[in-house]
Structures are given as structure tokens and as C-alpha cells.
Amino acid sequence: MITKLAVVTILVRDQDEALQFYTEKLGLEKMDDMSFGEGNRWLTVTAKNQRDVQIFLQKGDSFGVDAMDQVGKATMWAFNTDNCREDYETLKGRGVKFLSEPTEQPWGIQATFEDLYGNKFSIVEEPTTSESA
Q1: Could you tell me the domains of the chain?
Q2: Could you tell me which of 69, 46, 48, 66 has the C-alpha nearest to residue 57?
């Protein structure tokens, strides 16, 4: 049986460039970085407090597949945050391109950004217990 989500793949054009974006701009941490086979590289990042889920930064033309035309066309992912408005300002200050400012939604405060390839992500601050009661 399936027990948990372990790895999410994001197709990128350049793994070093993507690593820099995800670590320096978003503040994620590099977890694995292994080269093997014919120029293939297993490169993952993860949130500091959630090391059981990794984001695999897969080069679009690796592992015998040419999927460069799919780079930037992934489904949207969401990161939880303790303070959406504060993180929005921090990330925006680091040059992250936001598609929407923090707005109140039924599920919390949300802002949407994209990575350097056009993949879309949200940061979501879930309502506190007193707000959702």
C-alpha cells in the first residue's frame, strides 16, 4: 500500500541554476546530490522542517528522456508558511516573481509565485484555530 509522498519531480533546464533558485531564493536545503550513469544527476531539495518529502530537480533531457518542452508546465504545488505576508515580502525582495499578492482565501492567506522556469507555486498560511472556529 502507498504510505506517504516521498519525491516530487520538477523538470528544469539547468540543475545548478535551479539549485541556486530553490536554496538561495526560497530557502530550501539541498538534500541529495549524486551523479551516476551517462551524465545523470539525482539532485533534491527539501524544506528544513520536512525532510521526508524531496523535490527532485530533474534536467528535462536526462534519464534517456527528452522532456525539455515540458519544463515549466508542471502542476501547482503549495508550501505552508507561518506568515504569508512576511514571506511574500522576503521572497519578493530576493527576486522571486509573484503572480499574486497575499490574499484571504477560505483555506487561509495565499500568494502565488513562479520559479525561473514558469512552474507555479503557492505559499499558504493556514488559518489559526481561533480564525477557523
Answers
A1: 1-61 (3.10.180.10), 72-133 (3.10.180.10)
A2: 46
Question: d(Cα 84, Cα 102) in Å, to the nearest integer?
Answer: 7
Question: Is the separation of the CB atoms in 57 and 15 below 8 Å?
Answer: yes
pLDDT 10s digits, 57-78 = 988 777 556 777 777 777 678 8
Whose CA is closest to 115, among 26, 6, 44, 1?
26
Question: Residue 44: is it exposed, middle or buried by C-beta count within 10 angstroms (0-12/13-18/19+)?
Answer: buried
Residue 59's Cβ-count burial label (10 Å; 0-12, 13-18, 19+) is: buried
